[in-house]
Amino acid sequence: MRKLIASTFVSLDGIMQAPGGPEEDPTGGFSLGGWTFNYWDEAMDPAAAGFDGKDRELVLGRRTYEIFDAYWPYQPAGDPTARTLNAARKHVASRTLTTVDWNNSTLLQGDVVPAITTLKTQPGPDLQIIGSGNLIQTLQAASLIDEYNVWTFPVVLGRGERLFGETARPLALRLVRSHVSSTGVVMSTYVPQGDVQPGSFASAEPSEKEMARRKKAAATGSRFP
Predict the structure, then answer these.
(1) What residues make up the domain containing 40?
(2) Domain assignment of residue 151, yes or no
(3) Is 36 within the bounds of a domain?
(4) pTM for the complete prediction?
(5) Residue 205 lies inside a defined structural domain of this protein
(6) DSSP structure string for the chain
C-alpha cells in the first residue's frame, strides 16, 4: 500500500493559511499572506524536502488546486518546481467543482475518505498532499495520513486557518528527521505512533489544595478564573 504524505508550512502557532503571498488566500479577512517570504534561505530546497511532489502523485483540496492551477502553469518552462507540479498526476478533492482542467488532473468523486482509501491501495508512487488544510484535517481524523512533512516558521500570526483544528484526532507522532535553516525554520518529518498515552509527573499523593484546585477546574471547565 502506498503512503499518504502531508506537506505543509505552518507558523509557530499552527497557522497554515496563505504562506506564499498576500493575495493567495484572504478567506476570513486574513491579511498576513506571504508570511514565509522573509524566512527563505538557500538551505530551504522544496525539491530536496519533497515539497514539489516529485515522483509522487498529488492530492489537493479545492482551494489549493485553484491557487496552483492559476499560478504554476504560467511559470517559465525552466522552473523545476513548475515543471514537476505541472507534469505530476493530481487528484482533486472538491464538493463544488465539476471539472478540473490543469494538466493530468482528476476530480475525486463522492466522499473523499473512501476515495483516498481506494487510491492508497492502487499501484503507483506515494501520494502527497500539499497545503489543503481542510483536506488534511478530514484525512487525519480518518487515520489515513502516514507521514507529516512540516516546516515551522518562527512567526506568530494569531489568526487564520490552522493545520489541526478542534476536530483533530489525538495522535502520538515520532520525529524521523529534522533540520533548521539559518533563518530559524524547523523542517521536520513525523510519522504516526498510535494513540496518545497520557502520564503524570506527580511523585506523591495530591494535597488538599491540589484536590480543591482540580475540583474547581472540573467545575469551571477552564484554566482561567
Answers:
(1) 4-199
(2) yes
(3) yes
(4) 0.88
(5) no
(6) ---EEEEEEEETTSB-S--S-TTS--GGG---TTTTGGG--TT--TTTTTTT-TTSEEEEEHHHHHHHHTTGGGS-TT-HHHHHHHHS-EEEE-SS-S---STTEEEEPS-HHHHHHHHHHSSSSPEEEES-HHHHHHHHHTT---EEEEEEES----SS-BSS-TTPPP--EEEEEEEE-TT--EEEEEEE-SS--------SPPPHHHHHHHHHHHHHTSS--
Q: What is the mean pLDDT of residues 90-107?
A: 95
- List, for residues 76-94, the tens digit of each pLDDT value: 988 888 999 999 999 999 9
- Does residue 139 belong to any structural domain of this protein? yes
What CATH number does residue 127 fall under? 3.40.430.10
Looking at the structure of the chain, the number of domains it has is 1
